[in-house]
């Protein structure tokens, strides 16, 4: 069964309690349940990860690139959180691993502070979803399944 990785960056473990006017009331556990339900619907395994540590995310991206090349992985849904606006290292990891990534943000970053308007991840992402709440995770998983990108 093919797999989709759903990766979440820093502070996303606080979903449901952190700034609910921007991020809503769904928790990260709710997001994981949603993603697994979509995976079940599409006959996909979901590998779910959240880390506040950039190196953990980079290591997973590197491994995911090898999984994608082997044909066992369709790609990744990645909500990099604030790392979208700061991490050239994550951008380079995605590009180097040649991993299909849908960049995902719960809030509309373009309606927020100016520093959130630029993402280093977007230039190497297959697609970008912003501002659709946690529903964006479902849309991103379905998009990867529809594209069926394999090497």
From TrEMBL:
BP GO terms, sorted: amino acid biosynthetic process; aromatic amino acid family biosynthetic process; chorismate biosynthetic process; quinate catabolic process
One GO molecular-function entry: 3-dehydroquinate dehydratase activity
List of catalytic residues: 23 (proton acceptor), 105 (proton donor)
Record bears the keyword Lyase: yes
Binding-site list for substrate: 79, 85, 92, 106-107, 116
UniProt pathway annotation: Metabolic intermediate biosynthesis; chorismate biosynthesis; chorismate from D-erythrose 4-phosphate and phosphoenolpyruvate: step 3/7
Site (Transition state stabilizer) residue list: 18
Keywords: Amino-acid biosynthesis, Aromatic amino acid biosynthesis, Lyase
Pfam families: DHquinase_II
Catalytic activity: 3-dehydroquinate = 3-dehydroshikimate + H2O
EC identifiers of the protein: 4.2.1.10
Domain of life: Bacteria
Similarity annotation: Belongs to the type-II 3-dehydroquinase family.
Assembly, per entry: Homododecamer.
Record's function text: Catalyzes a trans-dehydration via an enolate intermediate.
Protein name in the entry: 3-dehydroquinate dehydratase
